[in-house]
Amino acid sequence: MANRLFRAVIMGPPGSGKGTISGRIAQSFGLQHLSSGDFIRENIAANTEAGVLAKSYIDKGLLVPDHVMTRLLLPRLEEMTRHSWVLDGFPRTLAQANALNSVCKLDMVVSLNVPFETLKERLSHRWVHPASGRVYNMEFNPPRVQGVDDISGEPLVKSDDDKPEAVVARLRHYKDNAKPVIDLYKAKGILHTFSGTETDKIWPYISSLVSAKVRS
Ligand code: G5P
């Protein structure tokens, strides 16, 4: 558990393991895990105005516009002023990074650097439970029963986002948009980049770093 408030952002292309790493950080260090993708999926499920709008972009493999994302995310962050958190999937653009900067000070940013071929392979093995957003990988974290969500027993589906053409487009968008954000955090001296093809091998290094920062 953190001794003082601690705020971390996990960046990385689609399929790089942001959700997996953030979940482990949250669990190991007693932080709240905030995920932009989960916020969007909650809003889509609740049929809010922002959710309906966001879905129209996600269905085309596009990023949700900055003003929609900041409207969804910033109020949630402002409610968390007394909590330590790890934020996954936001910011993805320089405008989002500037908006985040206006509401909080980050302690660290982790950038996951995973080769393109590994990402393509991973996303092609990914299945989701649409109602909850739970994600499975047929090799890395398979469901207990093939094709079925562990908790609800409902069928798993392949997201349109994970079809090969959409994956290539998403990876390209990520690179273009993330570069200025990565440069910004590098200039602030809070960026830590981890490269590799396996989350389980990267994790011990991230865990040691977070442990040192949380307790510093
Ligand atoms: P999301 O939900 O943020 P993505 O596409 O950025 O979605 P994704 O695909 O959920 O990110 P991730 O969180 O980086 O990936 O990675 P993960 O889920 O932990 O792991 C990916 C898969 O690989 C899983 O099946 C996992 O089990 C497996 N895996 C992990 N590690 C390993 C490993 O070592 N080996 C193997 N074999 N497998 C592994 O956003 C969804 C959409 O919402 C919009 C965008 O349109 C986005 O595409 N959006 C935003 N738009 C604008 N601005 C923002 N800030 C936005 N945030 C979301």
Automatic annotation (TrEMBL):
Keyword Zinc-finger attributed: no
Class of this enzyme: transferase
Chief localization: mitochondrion
Binding site for AMP: 36, 41, 62-64, 89-92, 96, 170
Region annotation NMPbind: where it falls in the sequence: 35-64
GO molecular function term, any single one: ATP binding
Record's keyword terms, sorted: GTP-binding, Kinase, Mitochondrion, Nucleotide-binding, Transferase
EC number: 2.7.4.10
UniProt cross-references to InterPro entries, sorted A to Z: Adenyl_kin_sub, Adenylat/UMP-CMP_kin, Adenylat_kinase_CS, Adenylate_kinase_lid-dom, ADK_active_lid_dom_sf, AK3/Ak4_mitochondrial, P-loop_NTPase
Presence of the UniProt keyword Mitochondrion in the record: yes
Positions annotated to bind GTP: 15-20, 126, 135-136, 199
Gene Ontology CC entries for this record: mitochondrial matrix
Catalytic activities: a ribonucleoside 5'-triphosphate + AMP = a ribonucleoside 5'-diphosphate + ADP; GTP + AMP = GDP + ADP
Region (LID): 125-162
Domain (Adenylate kinase active site lid) ranges: 126-161
Compartments, record wording: Mitochondrion matrix
Pfam families: ADK, ADK_lid
GO BP term, pick one: AMP metabolic process
Function text: Involved in maintaining the homeostasis of cellular nucleotides by catalyzing the interconversion of nucleoside phosphates. Has GTP:AMP phosphotransferase and ITP:AMP phosphotransferase activities.
HAMAP family in alphabetical order: Adenylate_kinase_Adk, Adenylate_kinase_AK3
Family note: Belongs to the adenylate kinase family. AK3 subfamily.
NCBIfam families: adk (TIGR01351)
Domain notes: Consists of three domains, a large central CORE domain and two small peripheral domains, NMPbind and LID, which undergo movements during catalysis. The LID domain closes over the site of phosphoryl transfer upon GTP binding. Assembling and dissambling the active center during each catalytic cycle provides an effective means to prevent GTP hydrolysis.
Assembly mode: Monomer.
Name of the molecule in the record: GTP:AMP phosphotransferase AK3, mitochondrial
